[in-house]
């Protein structure tokens, strides 16, 4: 891929109805990154069908059928940026140190950006070793967060410009 690459980042969709703003973003994206916990094959196949390119991993709630379709850690070089995606990174305490060991400059297969999920908590930090850690939150299950979220990004010349999208509450009743 050359030039600016439009990316959508999602995680933890948990077989729920995907909000239209996410599908609208997917429709214009060059790459969709999903950090696991699909929980059903239909959701994976919907993303696969609608995405120009999909970089995805499985999560702790994904069964054998999904695990057979994607890796635990997926990787891709995009716009000069080494991307990795994994579902779980463990507890927030010590996350940066663990991720530096797993994905930092001294690791076997370093990444510039690690997209992860599991917590449903939007996250954007950089480790002491220089790995950018990004969690898009969940577009379908806000848990203890004020809103459901996903992220979009522009990748160009090895850089990542990230935008968080807070979704409106779902209608009830």
The averaged pLDDT comes out at 95
Spans of at least 5 consecutive residues with low confidence: none
Mind telling me the CATH superfamily name? Metallo-dependent phosphatases
Spatial sequence of strands, sheet with the most strands: 3-2-1-9-10
Overall outline: globular
Say how many strands there are: 10
CATH topology: Purple Acid Phosphatase, chain A, domain 2
Pfam family, one: Metallophos_2
Keywords: Metal-binding
Protein name: Phosphoesterase
Cofactor: a divalent metal cation
Give the gist of this structure.
This protein has 173 residues and is α/β, with parallel strands linked by helices.
Q: Key features?
A:
Phosphodiesterase_MJ0936/Vps29, five-stranded mixed β-sheet, 4 helices, alpha/beta, Purple Acid Phosphatase, chain A, domain 2, 173 residues, Phosphoesterase
Description:
Its cofactor is a divalent metal cation. The protein is of the alpha/beta class. It has a single domain, classed as Metallo-dependent phosphatases (Purple Acid Phosphatase, chain A, domain 2, 4-Layer Sandwich), CATH 3.60.21.10. Helix content is 18%, strand content 30%. It is built from four helices and ten strands; from the N terminus they run βαβαβαββαβββββ. The chain has helices at residues 20-28, 41-50, 64-67, 95-103; strands at residues 5-10, 31-34, 54-56, 73-78, 81-86, 113-115, 123-126, 132-135, 149-156, 159-166. A five-stranded mixed sheet has the order 3-2-1-9-10, with helices on one face. The relative contact order is 0.20.
